[in-house]
Structures are given as structure tokens and as C-alpha cells.
Design goal:
Layout lengths: L6 H10 L6 H22 L13 E2 L11 E7 L11 E5 L26 H8 L3 E6 L19 E2 L2 E5 L5 H6 L7 E5 L6 H7 L2 E3 L21 E5 L2 H11 L21 H4 L8 E5 L8 H16 L3 E5 L4 H21 L16 H11 L5 H17 L2 H8 L1 H7 L1
Parallel strand pairs: 3-4, 3-7, 10-11
Antiparallel strand pairs: 1-2, 2-4, 5-6, 7-9, 8-9
Length: 407
């Protein structure tokens, strides 16, 4: 039975949302409010506990040295069946749910949270024969691209150990240099897989929006969230993408006007060479970059040309607006997402209610320990909310269409 709502509590509720209600009016509303609170109680009660995984899953002690701080937790999760990924050993970013294994999101907000269900991509990979050997270190709530803002400390680049690995999927990229790791799952909202892949000298891909389900991963904004895949060579990436891509009824990102996708079949569809392919070089993306980075990119274009590709420069002036649009939406949107328990409202798909209480409690008690990057993002979001009352997000979101059309 729900706790009775007193007039004092009702007054406090009104004050918290700055709602003007006169005392005599509140007295009339109180019985209706209490009746409705009792009515909705069954629908909002704790769900029936989820059946735990049948296979044994546990944290293990470190089996090898980890000089780059890539691994947040070693674990031993066997495959659930044989398949195209049999024998492949995988690491998973700390914001992707693995049932029975603590998930911290690189943050002080989620110290003791243990998911009860696998993320869709985790389940698909295990069903295809992969095993999981580690959970990887990441930036605080994935709100940075440096690899040094997470609660576990900085991740170093195996390619340059005196430098950080880049982020936010820092540990995912660095883990590929550890013995026995073939492929890594990360996320990529604004470069979070491609940046550490580049800084660590591995390969990383951001699949097309909605191609890979995001269900069961902590996100930042549903219009930007992507899963990322990293490996030391192309074939493991293609093999994993073949397995984890495709339609998932639970993922709202796949309800946004996208066609229902099937598996990629990337390996069987791969051409023998790149003859007939044209690589577009977006000029606006090369402005003010370090000469050594440009030299590396030029070398890559040369390699593509040797494989038969035609490379040509294109101009997309709208590219220069994309960063402002992204930061406006992510800062305003992530604050709202956090206040709503990590899931948001009014979308079709499977919600993740078990993450709501840990996030809200973590924020109430541990927000002082958030990274500077996370704090700046949240402050900017609240500034936009107070000065523009939610219109900032809407205006920025409406600019996505022309930018995408330009590309």
C-alpha cells in the first residue's frame, strides 16, 4: 500500500516543480491525488525478478599484467552455444550490461549496480560462441574523449604508453594489446570508439545508426547513441558485426523510421578489392589538424588508392555546424536523461527501470565525485534548460535534418 500523501507532502511536491496551488485548492486536490497514487501503484511496483543466466559467471583475479589500466574487472563468461564466433575472446565496455557482473559506467554514480539481464549485443555474441574475458575501463559516464576521466583512473595507450588512450571506450581499445583478447565492444556517441582506436593504433568502427541494437547499454542521447566495435584487424570486426547487427524490438533507436535490418553478412559481401569505390574526403574535417595527423591520413588514402579506390575531395560546409548541434543536444538531453532515471520518456521500446534507482541514489550521494567533463556537461545542460526552457534541444535537433541532408 502506498504511503498516504499528506497536505505537507503535496505542498512540497508543488514547490519542487514551482507549481502555484492555493491551500484551499490543494485540500480539494488531495483526495484525488491520493486515489490516483494508489491506482498506479501496481503498475509501478517492482517487477518479477529476472531468471539469472544458466551458465556460471564470476569475477576472476588478474591473469596477466595490465600496464595500460585497460581492464576494470576480469571475468570468465563462457559462450552459451557454438557459432560463428566460437573461440573468439571479447572484452565489453563498462556501460554495457552483463548479467551478474558489476557495471559501473566508469563513474562514482554506479558503485554497486549489478545488471540482471544481458544487453542484446552481449546475448547475441555469447549465443554465437564468443566468450567474455573482461570489462573495460572507460571515461566517466562516457562523457569525455580523453580516456582519463573515469573513476578507475587514466588508461594509457599501448602504442604510446606516455600518453592516454583516448576515449570514452579507452580500455576497450587498449585491451586489444592484452594476450587472448580478439575483439572489444564499446560505444560511439561522438567518437568514443574511433578516437581510442586511432590513439591506440587499432581499428574501430561506428556502425550506421540503428544497425546494432543499443538495448542494455547506458546511453547519452537516443538520437546519437551507437555501439562501437574494435579489433586489431578487419575480420574479427566484420564477424562480430555480422552477429550483433539486426532488428531488436526493444531498441527505440530502431523505431525511428529505419528499415528493419538483418545481419550484415559483411564477410561474405566483402569485395576482393576497392575498384569502383569512391572515398569522399570532407575538406571541412581537415581544417586546423596536426601535420602529423594529416600525413597519417594521407598515407591511409594512398593505401586505399592502391586497393583500387578513387579518392576525391568534397566540401560540406554544414560539417562545421555539427559540433555545436551535438554539444547542445547532448548537454541538454543528458541532464534530462539523468533526471528521468537513465531511460527518458515517451519512446517505444524496452525501458531499463533497474538502472533508475542506482543512478538517482548515486547522483544524490556521489555527484561531487563526477569528472570535470561530466560536471561541465551537466551545468551547460541546466543552463540551457533554465534559459531556453527545453527549446535549446528542440532547435538543435531540428538542425540535424539539413546537416544529414547535406552529407
Amino acid at each position: 500500500m502506498s504511503v498516504p500523501i499528506t497536505d505537507i507532502h503535496a505542498q512540497a511536491l508543488a514547490q519542487s516543480i514551482e507549481l502555484s496551488v492555493e491551500p484551499d485548492e490543494l485540500a480539494g486536490l488531495l483526495p484525488v491525488l491520493q486515489e490516483l497514487a494508489t491506482l498506479v501503484e501496481p503498475a509501478t511496483a517492482a517487477p518479477v525478478p529476472v531468471q539469472p543466466p544458466t551458465s556460471e559467471r564470476h569475477i576472476t583475479s588478474a591473469r596477466q599484467t595490465d600496464p595500460w589500466n585497460a581492464i576494470a574487472r576480469w571475468c570468465d563468461i563462457p559462450p552459451t552455444s557454438e557459432g560463428p564466433l566460437s573461440g573468439m575472446k571479447m572484452t565489453v565496455k563498462d556501460c554495457i550490461a552483463i548479467a551478474g557482473i558489476p557495471m559501473q559506467g566508469g563513474s562514482a554514480l554506479l558503485v554497486d549496480h549489478v545488471p540482471t539481464q544481458d544487453a542484446t549485443i552481449v546475448r547475441r555474441a555469447l549465443d554465437a560462441g564468443a566468450s567474455i574475458v573482461g570489462v573495460t575501463t572507460m571515461d566517466d559516464l562516457a562523457l569525455a574523449a580523453s580516456g582519463d576521466s573515469g573513476i578507475a583512473g587514466p588508461v594509457l595507450s599501448p602504442a604510446a604508453p606516455d600518453r592516454v588512450a583516448g576515449g570514452s571506450s579507452a580500455g576497450a581499445a587498449a585491451s586489444l594489446y592484452l594476450d587472448g583478447v580478439d575483439v572489444a565492444l564499446g560505444t560511439d556517441t561522438g567518437g568514443s570508439s574511433r578516437v581510442p582506436a586511432a590513439w591506440c593504433g587499432t581499428l574501430g568502427i561506428k556502425p550506421s545508426y540503428g544497425r546494432v541494437p543499443y538495448t542494455g547499454a547506458i546511453g547519452i542521447d537516443q538520437l546519437f547513441d551507437h555501439i562501437g566495435v574494435m579489433a586489431r584487424s578487419v575480420r574479427p570486426i566484420a564477424a562480430l558485426l555480422d552477429v550483433i547487427s539486426g532488428h531488436d524490438e526493444s531498441d527505440p533507436r530502431q523505431h525511428m523510421g529505419l528499415p528493419r535490418t538483418t545481419g550484415l553478412r559483411a564477410i561474405e559481401a566483402a569485395p576482393a578489392d576497392l575498384a569502383g569505390w569512391t572515398v569522399g574526403l570532407v575538406r571541412e574535417g581537415w581544417l586546423d589538424i596536426d601535420p602529423s595527423v594529416e600525413a597519417a591520413l594521407r598515407a591511409t588514402l594512398g593505401s586505399l588508392a592502391k586497393l583500387g579506390a578513387s579518392c576525391r575531395e568534397v566540401q560540406i560546409p554544414e560539417h562545421l555546424d555539427a559540433g555545436a548541434v551535438m554539444f547542445a543536444m547532448l548537454s541538454d538531453g543528458f541532464g534530462a536523461l539523468l533526471r528521468s532515471g537513465g531511460s527518458g520518456y515517451q519512446w517505444e521500446g524496452e525501458y531499463w527501470p533497474e538502472i533508475a534507482h542506482p543512478l538517482s541514489q548515486g547522483y544524490a550521494h556521489n555527484s561531487a565525485h563526477l569528472s570535470p567533463q561530466a560536471k561541465v556537461g551537466l551545468l551547460l545542460g541546466e543552463h540551457l534548460r533554465q534559459t531556453q526552457s527545453g527549446a535549446a534541444y528542440g532547435r538543435a535537433a531540428n538542425r540535424r535534418g539539413p546537416i544529414r541532408k547535406a552529407y
